Amino acid sequence: MLTMREAYYKALVGTSDLLLTPLFVIVVLMVAVLIRNMLYPNDKEMKKYFLQGLTLKILGGIGVGLIYAFYYDGGDTVEFFNNATVMYDAFSNSFTDFVILITGGMHTNLPTSREYFPWMFFRSDPSSYMVGRIAGFFAVFTFDTYLPMAVLFATVSFSGIWALFTTLRKEYPALTRQFAIATLFIPSVFFWGSGVLKDSITLACVGWITYGSYNLFMKRQKVLQSIIALAIASYFCSVIKAYIILSFAPAMLFWIFLTYRDKLESKFLRTMAGPVVIFIAAFMGLTIVKRLGTEFKMYSIDNALSTAQNFQGYHEILAEKSNASGYNLGVVDGSNGSIISKIPAAINVTLFRPYIWETRNPVMLISALESFAMLLFTLRIFYKTGIWNTLKAIGGNATVFFCLFFSLFFAFCVGFTAYNFGALVRYKIPCIPFFVAGLFVLKHLTDIENEKRKEERKSF
Question: What pLDDT does residue 396 have?
Fold first, then answer.
């Protein structure tokens, strides 16, 4: 058996990965086929997307592992795996020690602390340690082998993104193909959202929170299942990346309240209820944000600016020292006007940068090509819909408002804090499916309006 030092410093990807990874991929896909056939016995389109989406996620998870193993020199995923290695060693020696570590026992007076904690880099960071605990749990089933562990992370991530896809599809069945593109087939989402990283778990959480909230509050169906999904996903997301909850909660409240507003039969009542609904949703969203801010001090409104400045400083240093691709939004003096003035630039950098000429390495070039495609797609949608139809759809359709409000607000948050393209390509993942889905719905509504106008012209 390896010593703790030997286990900690072993290669990220080795011979055991070559042997076990194909086996895990085959088993996961076989189970997926069984589940798919149970859920969609007669729906060929959903069967196709289910298997294609999962396969891409698995390939993405493996790809992330190979990049960190053979291209990057270290990274978060390496330390998450090292944490898993420590927990797996504890499992091999003492099940009690393993349970203490996997359940988050961080008491330094325990006998296990002297043996294991010094080797756990993220032991003092609850959010990172949570991912290490998940990796440690998976290590038991993967025999502490990285790529099979990445396959399991990718599968968990797929479960959430599939939940998001099916939720959006319930609202607009005619946009099944478009929603599949938005959620399953965007390269950065199925790649960076699939590895042994925080982003894989939080992406799954966002999908399950959407699914649970939609079924529980809007459709009032699958109540128990939705409560469980909502509770588990909210817990993990709040521990790993609380700011996602802070961004998502107001948007979800808008979606719920605006959906109920749209059900009013009277056009006059719908018009009058609009501002009231927005005010109530905004008030409740602010209340939730403040409440969460008291629980997670780092993300409180009072500390938001200092937190952003800390991230900015850290990533600027990283860009200078390691030749990473950094960016700058200009001076932020702390005033409301200064922050507001950065909104367009922050959203732009999240959704449409890095530009091709800003890339410094092959990985960033791929991200730049996707960002350029996103820019062309956005311009094409807005050109076809027009300014008036766009504003009308945003104000009059709950789903469009929800998708664009969350994606743009989240894009501002991460664009304002990341200051490094390498970090940004991962941080922005949760908002990309919503942004693209919102644009697809926007185009769909515009097409319907155009058809109505054509019919009206024919009738004259």
Answer: 78
